[in-house]
Design a protein that fits this description.
The protein is mostly helical and 241 residues long. The protein has one domain: Glycerol uptake facilitator protein, CATH 1.20.1080.10. The chain is 70% helix and 0% strand. Helix 1 packs antiparallel against helix 2 and helix 1 packs parallel to helix 4. The two termini are 22 Å apart.
């Protein structure tokens, strides 16, 4: 029997970690919006957008050793474009991330019924779809720059990067949620859209975050040389975390 201290996570275990992590993220992020609506505002704006940031911290601490804790198709895309994550492996990650987002949203629908519609991200009042997509691109690029930059620095790879990434998620939500809901994550937006059948603005949350990932990779090509620690961060820390 292999020593637990030296065994590397299998691909199946990595896929399960991405599924579970993305499902939990959707339960918390979309769930905060749903409970806020159902409770008549008892959660409050600050708590609604701190919650996703805090759960991202928890998921990175919990799952970075297994899968790298991407829990976001745009993050996986960025690692692929950066050349530190295999494209074929990414296909499996993308599949389970969207499946996990859907599972989380269906669980919310089981508990809250049609109120799951309140967990759907959409452009804010007076914000055009094109502007919303552009804004998602901007804030996703901020998030992905933080992720790639912390991954490039060996002293902060993995669990130490969790605070920087989680705080960025919370920060973007706190200052820009009225514009787009500050998704920055196609799977987070896909799940509630699928569970509610409301697809009106769905394209925004594919085009914007994916565009933001591309911009971030371009900028990081000038900011950082590619390092071994980035591959380690992208594929999971294993026993070294």
């Amino acid at each position: 029997m292999p020593d637990e201290g030296t065994s590397e996570p299998t691909y199946a275990r990595q896929l399960l970690a991405e599924f579970v992590g993305t499902a939990i993220l959707v339960i918390v992020a979309a769930g905060a919006d749903i409970v806020e609506a159902q409770s008549g505002g008892q959660i409050g704006h600050v708590a609604r957008y701190l919650a996703p940031g805090l759960i991202v911290v928890a998921m990175i601490w919990s799952l970075s050793a297994v899968s790298g804790a991407h829990i976001n198709p745009a993050v996986t895309l960025a690692f692929v474009l950066r050349g530190v994550f295999p494209p074929l492996k990414a296909v499996g990650y993308w599949f389970v991330q969207f499946a996990g987002g859907s599972a989380g949203a269906l669980l919310l629908r089981l508990f809250f019924g049609r109120s799951v519609i309140h967990g759907v991200t959409s452009a804010g009042p007076g914000v055009s779809p094109v502007t919303a997509a552009g804004w998602e691109m901007v804030i996703t690029s901020i998030l992905v720059i933080v992720i790639l930059s912390t991954a490039a620095e060996k002293p902060v790879v993995g669990k130490n990067a969790a605070l920087a990434v989680g705080f960025t998620v919370a920060c973007c939500g706190l200052f820009s949620s009225p514009v787009t809901g500050a998704s920055m994550n196609p799977a987070r937006s896909f799940g509630p859209a699928m569970a509610s059948g409301l697809w009106n603005d769905a394209w925004i949350y594919f085009a914007g975050p994916c565009g933001g990932a591309i911009v971030a990779v371009f900028l990081c090509a000038f900011l950082h040389d590619r390092t071994a620690s980035e591959r380690q961060a992208a594929e999971g820390q294993g026993p070294h975390s």
